[in-house]
Structures are given as structure tokens and as C-alpha cells.
Amino acid sequence: MSACLPPLLPVILAGGAGTRLWPVSRETMPKHLANLIGDESLLQMTAKRVTAIADADKLITVAAQHQDLLIKRQLNSIDPKLARHRLLEPIGRNTAAAIALAALYARRTFSDDAVLWVCPSDHLMQNQPALTKAVAEALPAAAEGDLLTFGIQPTRPETGYGYIKSTAPADNSAENTVSRVERFVEKPDFETAERMVAAGGYLWNSGMFLFRADRIIEELAAHEPNILSATEAAFEASTAHDDGSLHPPRALYESIPSQPIDKAVMERATRIAVVPCDPDWTDLGSWHAIWEMSEKDEDGNAARGDVLLSKTSNCLVQANGRLVACAGIHDLAVIETEDAVLVVDRTSSEPVKQIVGTLNEAERSETQAHRDLDRTWGRVILLDDTENHEVRRLEIFADQAIEAIKGVDVDLHWFILSGTAVLTRNGERMTLETGTSADLEAGTAYRLGNDGPSTLHLVQISKRP
């Protein structure tokens, strides 16, 4: 970017759950943190995409506080610089609050005129040059004070996206030409979408924005002063940690009115512009979208994991732990996890959302978390859970440890599968090699550590009284 332009700060909005992608996406493992396509999460792909254009140490991530362990771990695995500015919401208050928080932070940490490039964390874009070109085209207008949105050239009459009517030529042929926005259109019915696409001049609303920090604060003050003042109060009372995270207090943050930035500002301000772009974009909001973006065999099947197919076509099949065999089926999504299996018409996303709602009403744990849970020291995988005992497989990362200063309220038995554990109990230190075991009585203080260079694997049996 030109040296005469203000600094460009990517702002990744890492919120939302993605209920249409259950059973992979859950409360503690939303879609932006899951590996839905390839070996990286959508958050990691987004971070790499935006830092191909902007400096890594200028990335701001607004995320849910209870997901910070994974957020920090995934960003650090790419570059520790990416985790330097994490704004952790104690409760979700929609995108207006998240963007206001980022703008206030940017103004204090960088500069008033810093340009925020707001990007959802759960979208996929595979044409980096097209995105880079669109940002370069939009940046001068944003630096002058316009509020920019990025419009995607529509390829079909899609009812799941919002639309932007621009003043650009109706044939949508202009390449990355900034134009004024005439109006925003809510998600239309099919007939309306068909008419708009045929007429031209309409773009899909990508959910990406570009504007100066002081300008979005100014617009929030004009249109939604209650959102701005409540966010300012929470921001000023926030606690900054040495690891780069900022923690607003819950009591203040939950008082912020919940509203999307489109409704709060973009549909009401006057200096709104749009730049069309075609970065091979999708919001990956359904299993059908995952199928569309996945590699397929000659029968149109996209398979992942231990999958066996016979006389099957145009299906998405994901096996995350067991063999999944499909025979004589067509146009389905079959998604297997360790505790749930989904079989659904590949093109239907609403029934999946309804299933999640039913499970939530029944207070089923399958919508909240997977059987494998991340911890600061490693991972926990639940193997068995009965009235008398619980069996878990533990993975303790190198130079990490589990420590219970006051002990636990159940008897524990450990068996070392691989690696070497160092157990300290009641002041006594002992080494546990592969194939050995140890017992711990309830109430005993202990520390179970991994001093080795690789991950320690063990089985833990908790004996309930």
C-alpha cells in the first residue's frame, strides 16, 4: 500500500456458531475454528489472506472470550504476531458492537485515521489477486472518509445473501470501479433475486467493509449513540492482559444494544460506496456450499476421511472417526463425528438448523461441544462415561502440565500410552514411562507434567464413589 495512505488494519470478526454446519460446528467449535476444507480452519485461512495485504502485527481479532484458547492457538501456529490484538467479547452483541470496539481500540493503539478492513472469519476466498486489487482500489476512497463495502458479482439468483444496488453500469462489467450505493436489499425471495440478477447493477453483500476508525465512530455517534456510548464504557473498563488480549467486563458489555452494522450505519449513512470484486467467494453457510467448494470424484462425490462409496453420486461424505460406507444414494450430505451422524438432503440447510434447535431445547450436549476438548495444556478425548467411571484419553503437550493444588473429588488411575510423564503427589516426584501406570486417591494434590519434546499420551480413569 502507498506510504501516503493511513495504516491498514485488518479486523477479523470471529463470532457466530454456524448451526447449519452441525455436527462439526458447535458452540465450543464454531465453523470458523473447524477444519471444514483442507487442513486449516477458516480463521487461519482468513488470517493468511488478509496479512498477504496488510502487516501481521496490525491484525485485530474480535472473538468470543470462551473461544480464545483456540483463537490464540490457531493464530500463533501461523505467526505469533497475529495474536497481538485480540478483543474478547464476554457475550455476543452483533457486528455493530464488535466493530465499535475494534474502532475504539484502533484509535487508541494506532491512529484516528487508521483504516479498518472488516472481514468475517468464516468466509472462503480463493482468488487472492482479485481481492488484493479490490482493496487497493477501495483504500483511497476509505482514506478520504467514505464507508466502503465489497460487492460480489452474482452468478445466480441466490436467496441466502443480501444485495447492494450500485450506480455502476447495469451489466456489472466494470472491474473494481468504486461507485456509490443506491440501496441495500435484504435477502430476497427467488423471484425478486431473479429479477435483480437479470436487471444487472446488483451485487451480493460480502460482509466485508473498509472505513477509517474515526469515520465509523462518527457515524455510530450520529445514528446509534446508545451503541457507541455503551461500547465506550465497556472499552474504558476493559482489562488488558500481557498475552495481547483485551477483556471488556460482562456487566457493561451485555448492556450494549445488539444490532448489525448494516442496520446501524451502512443503510443510513450518506457516504457509502461499493467496489465490485470476484475473489471466488462463498460464505460456506451450508453443507451444500462445502460440497460446491470441495474436490470431487468422477461421480460428483466429495469425500473426506475413511469413506467407501458404491453406486453413489453427488454426495458430500465426511468421516471424522469411523468408516462411513454409502451405497446407492444420491445428492445427500453424510457427516459423521464421534457422537453424532447427520444425513440430510445436500441442498437443504434449514432442516439442520431446526435439528439443532430441537437438540438445544432438549438440552443435549451434542450441540455444545465435541467429545474431544482443547485445554491450555493439551486435549481431552472422552472415551466412556457411566454411572461408576469415566474414561478419557489425555494429550499433554511438551513442557505442559495438569496441576490440581487441592486435588480432585474422585480416585484417578493413569496408564501411559506413549511418552514419559512426571508425577508429583504429596511432594513425592516419580517418572512414569510408556506402559506404566499410577493411582491417585481423591483429595490428593498433584502435578502431572510432560517434560519431554513430544506430546504425552495417556488414559485416565476416574472412579466415581
Query: Strand arrangement, largest sheet?
Result: 20-21-22-29-24-27
- How much β-strand is present in the residues? 25-35%
Radius of gyration: 25 Å
Instruction: Characterize the main sheet.
Output: 6 strands, antiparallel
Helix tally equals 11
- Give the domain tally: 3
Describe the global form.
globular
| Low-confidence sequence ranges | 170-174
How many β-strand runs? 29
Query: Within the CATH hierarchy, at the fold level, what is the topology of the largest domain?
Result: Spore Coat Polysaccharide Biosynthesis Protein SpsA, Chain A
Report the helical percentage. 10-25%
Determine and state the CATH class of the largest domain: Alpha Beta
Mean pLDDT: 91
Structural class by sheet pairing and helices: alpha/beta
